[in-house]
Amino acid sequence: MPRRAQPIFLGDGSTLAGIHVKNFLLTVLTLGIYSFWAKADVRQYLYSQTDVAGDRFDYSGTGGELFLGFLKFLGLVLVGVGVAVAGLGVSESLAPVVGYALVGLLVFPLGVVGSRRYRLSRTSWRGIAFSFRGSVAGFLGVYIPGALLTVVTLGIYYPFFHANVRRFLVEGTHFGNRPFEFTGSGADLLPRHLLLYVALPLTLGLYGFWHVAHRQRYYWEHTSFGSAQFSSSLDGGELLSFSLANALLTIVTLGIAYPWIQARRIGFQCEQIEITGTEAFEAALQDARTAGAMGDAVSEMFELELAGADFFGL
Length: 314
Hints:
The chain has eleven helices and twelve strands.
């Protein structure tokens, strides 16, 4: 019989709150510089408290790497603006416009690919490192035509676009020397997507929770690692009640409950996932890849949610 496992989050909001308070004070005292170390501190705790089949994840990224990545990105932007102003004859009044355009061209691909590549390169389980091997060019080849077709078709192409991005992220992810696989298709999601146009206004937007839950179940059911198969039990009603509870906690506590909400969110995500055939992971051999932190720093700066590299947050 294939072995089964469910991710478990062992952390708690109280410990996480203590970490956030310490990080906040040090960030204020250092005029914001410590924020890079604060992010690494939180990640190390969250990963170390996430268990699969009796073994926890390990995160080895550091604040120093994030800070250096931020400085590299800042230098790249300044050099780009300087070259544009000097080499292309751009006037000083247009320099900010050129700067914003360059940032726009750099931020998204660097954030999505660079963040995922960096975070997974610093993540391991049972001593075997993860990695992401997708390229910026590969991502743009998926994203640009997908975004254009979504606009041209007034949103009808969106499930194909979303599924293609998912495929890029999943199939570029490796555990050791073996890749994950994704067999999903936007065609399977299209009927539910079309239903969304009717159901959303009729349910005052509430149907969106059932739509997201169905898509997540579909994505996990079409994600595998060798003979290991993932599945999800996420239900729209559960997602709605969970989201409302978190919103209420945020409002009532004026945001103070954020660490508890963060712990609840990860625990909730883990509870929905099951892996059948975990023995497949034992065949993976170490094949670690290095990656710089510039893309991750960019992702954090501009809050690119799509760039999230947390494995169970796919």
